[in-house]
Amino acid sequence: MKTCFVFFASLLFCSIQALCPDKEPGLKPWMPGHSKHHRVVISYGRKVLLTTSATVHSIEILNGGKLVIADTNRPILLRTKHILIGNKGELHIGSPDCPYKGNLTISLFGRSDDTDQDHSYFGRKYIGVGTGGTLEIHGAKKLSWTFLNKTLFPGESRQNHYLLERSWGNRGIIVHIIDPKTGEVLSNNRFDTYRSKDESIRLAKYLDSVALELIVAMVVNDEGSNNLEDSAKKSIFRLGSQHINSLGFRHPWSFIVVKGNPSSAVEDHALYQGTKASSEAQSSSVFQLSYAEHFTVTASSQWVQEAEWTEWFDRDDERGSGDWEKLTDLRQAYPDRLCNGPLDIQAETNDGIPSNQTGDVIHKNNKDYGFVCRNKDQAHGLCHNYRVRFLCGKLVRPQASISIDMLSNSTILELADKPVGWQPGDRVVVASTDYSMHQTEGFNLIHCPTCTTNQVKVQGKAQFIHMGEVVDGVDMRAEVGLLSRNILICGEMEPSCYGNEACKFFDFDTFGGHLKVERGFKAAHISGVELQHMGQQTMGHYPIHFHMNGEVDEMGGYNPPTYVSDLSIHHSFSRCVTIHSSNGLLVKDVVGYDTLGHCFFTEDGPEERNTFDHCLGLMVRAGTLLPSDRDSKMCRGITDGAYPGYVANPRQDCSATSTFWIANPNNNLINCAAAGSEETGFWFIFHHVPTGPSEGLYSPGKTEHTPMGQFINNRAHSNYRCKLTDTYLREKRKALQEKNVLPLVPERNEAAGSTTLDFQ
């Protein structure tokens, strides 16, 4: 029995090692340190395990060399100018069955004007998979993107959470006990310490029983000092009060403290001013709930004097020396209708025109004297006929209040799917559901212990409305995409643009990193990765680039087939995923956000059987690489290669920036969303002949008569020009129909909502 158990455990241990690349036997720990001049070559069967952060000039892996990144509980930062995976070289970060769980950043540094010599194929600032090379990167599995399931409205940050107000009939000291972790009122009570000494004893016992670290808020309403005994005063004094022993008859008093921390006390005390004058004591304290939320407790104790206006009085008129509405004369004429010591006065003509708008010179307008307009002061010799009224104060009344205002700079997002793997600190982007893609907004996730399984809390409030419902049968819901991954590949950027033609159009550095796969690679599978500041405004350098690879699935001998999945590509300087003369690539669950030039791009025309499955692209801006990438300014300003005298027509020659640019009909787009570009959501352009280095790969006119691949359940909205453009497709509709291809072409007008597009 023991032998069987040991044998089973041994098999299990070997299985675990086989699944996790950093557990492979024979790996040598590698800690290269930090030197920007250290050129690393891993070759001749050497297998190393990077276990700590490092900085090197470059890494080349070839001739049986293998680099594995250790999955540790400490973040690893690898800085290098490039990583070249050559023939029989391998780079492994996690595996499909053992995703990388730690936090890894590969940071590609360097400037376009460095003195280093460019690689003849890959250029510089790259991860390059050459002929015979293997790249396996597999980050943690996370939900790539989903939809809002409840409309998100622009929000105010202040939300009144709780308010208690009391006046006559609630005499004494009012106490609230508040939970500092939630802002909730745990208990409240009133003690009539004017009426009874027993109430003082009860108050003292109540305060002494309160647990440490809870918030105590107290106010006097009406009167609370008459029978306030020493036992209660001592309990309040121990909490941190400095004024409780000075509390007198009908004195307003407010007090807030965290029990056990007298230094946290805030307190106010005022004297009673009699029945005809206001007085107030108010205290306020702010308590932090979380990074994005806090609440304010305010305690107010006051005597409030309310006031009301008298009727209008018109004792005199303009005849004689003028209009005299003196207060002494009015009291004699109307002895029971005027108060002593008015608070204010108003004067107007009998037609209702305020005295300051009549043009008359007013001699006096004073609440203590009255109103006088003298005829001799007027240019025209006669005042208007005026009437006056006075503001009289009532007897004061008590008013006490305790309020709790939640100052929440956070928002709950209701999602259509469970946000698997999303964590506090991750960043998400919510698509525009308006005409403009610029209403797309980004948020950081924060901790939310009260959220349901389909909710997340984000820091901040939306500036725009984002729909989260189906309206009149149209799915108007905004897409919500995840940008953060536990594996980050990024380019290190300069603070501003420098030394190249792109600076005519961009004020930021556009020389990012890039990842390129060469024909004849051995294996390439990339999943669970964030790519930021990747791509360059030069041809052939994109965040993900499969270049002239031919068949990359089973038809090309790749098993498992080549794929990129669960990627977040954002703030890219040139495209998102580029497929160039490569066939059979699976691009799945990829989010492309804020990129220059076409986001999901098939290049020359021979690209076939590639599948874009559940991909989201949004905020796709113009770039300089191709005329179709350019906006009007770029179109007119870039004339390299044009014939003499050429004058650009931007709407005809350029202005085609698209989220999905498909150059061959035999590709599949399934469940994808084009959620905002400067021009078009989906653009099909079927090359009559292949272009660029793919020239001659098929006969003229082939693509125009090739049946469409699958185009199912795709969405487009918030694109400036239109949702879908079909260069050549309309002209060839008859031929396509003869081949049983019936494309749906939506009207070329942009709607705020999304349109679901299918070819059936």
Percentage of residues in strands: 35-45%
Mean pLDDT comes to 91
Ranges where pLDDT stays below 50 over 5 or more residues in a row are 1-17, 728-760
Number of strands: 52
The structural class is mainly beta
Q: Main beta sheet: strand number and arrangement?
A: 11 strands, parallel
Q: Helix count, per DSSP? A: 7
Specify the helix fraction band: under 10%
> What is the radius of gyration?
38 Å
Gross morphology: elongated
Distance between the amino and carboxyl termini = 62 Å
Strand order of the largest sheet: 2-5-8-11-37-39-41-43-46-49-51
Description:
- It is built from seven helices and 52 strands.
- It is mainly beta and 760 residues long.
- The strands form eight sheets. An eleven-stranded parallel β-sheet has the order 2-5-8-11-37-39-41-43-46-49-51, with no helix packed on it. A six-stranded parallel β-barrel has the order 42-44-47-50-48-45. It has a six-stranded antiparallel β-sheet with strand order 13-35-30-31-32-29, with no helix packed on it.
- It starts with a helix and ends with a strand.
- Helix 2 packs parallel to helix 3.
- 8% of the residues lie in helices and 38% in strands.
